[in-house]
Amino acid sequence: MSNGSEGATPGFLVWRLSMKWRVAVDRAVAPLGLTHAQYSLVASLYGMRRSGERPSQRRLADHTGLEPLYVSKLARALETAGLLERTRDPRDPRAVQLALTEQGCEVGARAITVVHGLLQQLLEPLGGLDSARAKEFTRDLTALLDAPLDPFSENETEQS
Rounded to whole angstroms, how far apart are CA atoms 75 and 90? Predict the structure, then answer.
């Protein structure tokens, strides 16, 4: 176990792992002109594009787990960089649809390849990306993400 992790709570370990991942992705995609948060938008849009979806900013916020206002800020920066285009949704004039430009698709494909290599490294102790342990870990993470959290519930405050 790494330094400072012995006796740590699962919450602390999740936080440490998420910080380790964020820093690694930030460093890996920086040469492509992206931050980790921008990568999450570009990679999500890349995947959605492949399935024929052109999401609204709200839909992309829901998909990534980022706040809608933050997605809007990131989208503006990506638009300025020439990686993304924002257009009004013809079905809802209040909504903004997002799509990668050709340059955005190229940068996205390269970034996804780089981050996939990082993911292989991260999951190597579990037997690699395609191992049974990694698949089980993915199911566990999904279950945790799907579990509701209410910081004001009685059970949470009683345990503090």
Answer: 19
Residue 73 to residues 33, 38, 76, 86: CA-CA distances in angstroms? 16, 10, 5, 12
Instruction: Say if residues 111 and 34 touch (Cβ distance below 8 Å).
Output: yes
Tokens at 3, concatenated: 């330094």
Q: Is 88 helix (H, G, I), strand (E, B) or coil?
A: strand
Buried b (16+ CB within 10 A) or exposed e, 39-74: bbbbbbbbebbeeeeebbbebbbebbebeeeebbeb
Report the C-alpha gap between 55 and 48 in whole angstroms.
8
How confident is residue 67, by pLDDT bands cut at 50, 70 and 90?
very high
Counting residues of the chain whose pLDDT is more than 70, the rounded percentage is 94
